[in-house]
Amino acid sequence: MKQELNHVAYYLKQKRYSDRTIRAYYSAIKGLFEHFSYKNPQYLTEDDLRDYMELLVEKRKASTSYQKIVISGIKLYFEEILGRELDDLLLIIPQGSKRLPTFLSKEEVKSIIDNIDNLKHKSIIALIYSCGLRIGEVVNLKIKDIDSKNMIVWIREGKGRKDRLVPLSIKILELLREYWKNYKPKDWLFEGQKGGQYSTESIQAIFKRSCQKARINKDVTVHTLRHSFATHLIEQGTNLKYVQKILGHKNIKTTEIYTHVTDIQIGKISSPIDDIDLK
């Protein structure tokens, strides 16, 4: 089993997946291997895989997102690494959850940023929101990726290993210039205390502390800033195609979930009966 896991780890790295994706796939495949520890993983049958998926869904009550990761991991191992063709009906992708993403109002975002005193920390959180970045994208930014002449930010090898451009706010540019004068980063836009890339764990801790200070009681993460950015763009009338391009979504259906703002605005519409005297 250890040899096969090493093989999987090597393959994932050579495919140049992000560290987060590597950890997710590796963990999912390791879970499968450990469940069948008495068998060589290469000789697992389709019945074995079917039983394992039933175990995850029916007994362990695995979430939809985790089920998808396991399915992707199994397909990667058996079809890409071993070259075995699996029955399409064996690994059925579950229908996605209809739950809407949590988002923050502009006032809440402002409060979170205002409650950060450290200039570097404030610059990181403000940049994430202003550009709709994923946490892994902000730590991968280099100084050269900030194009002040064209007022854009280069996101290089984002999700799916694709480059994209996002608009740069003049307010963020001014904040970044002030940050650069104080910290003088050499290569990475945001560097750790000992040099190198800033850690995602540190950013998560910064965001959590600021939310506590701002008394934000919602169940939010750093990624909520990206949801909020997309929501606010649509709320101000930005074309959905542009939002899709800025966020780097492959499928516009992923972007369409942010049109839930329209549903929220419904609550502000007055009913005609409001003009009728019901005495």
Helix-strand layout with pairing:
Layout: H1 2-14, H2 19-35, H3 46-59, H4 64-81, H5 106-114, H6 119-131, H7 135-139, E1 146-147, E2 152-155, E3 164-167, H8 170-183, H9 200-213, H10 223-235, H11 240-247, H12 252-256, H13 260-266
Antiparallel strand pairs: 1-2, 2-3
Helix pairs in contact: 1-2, 2-4, 6-8, 6-10
> How would you write the strand order of the largest sheet?
1-2-3
Query: What is the highest CATH level, the class of the largest domain?
Result: Mainly Alpha
Major β-sheet profile: 3 strands, antiparallel
Output the CATH topology of the largest domain.
hpI Integrase, Chain A
Work out the radius of gyration. 23 Å
Q: Could you give the count of β-strands?
A: 3
- Described by the principal axes of the CA atoms, the overall outline is globular
Summed over residues and divided by their number, the pLDDT gives a mean of: 85
Number of helices: 13
Number of domains: 2
Structural class: mainly alpha
The low-confidence parts are 264-269
Helix fraction, binned, reads 40-55%
**CATH architectural grouping of the largest domain:** Orthogonal Bundle
The topology string of helices and strands comes to HHHHHHHEEEHHHHHH
Strand content: under 5%
The end-to-end distance, rounded to whole angstroms, is: 78 Å
CATH superfamily of the largest domain, by name, is Intergrase catalytic core
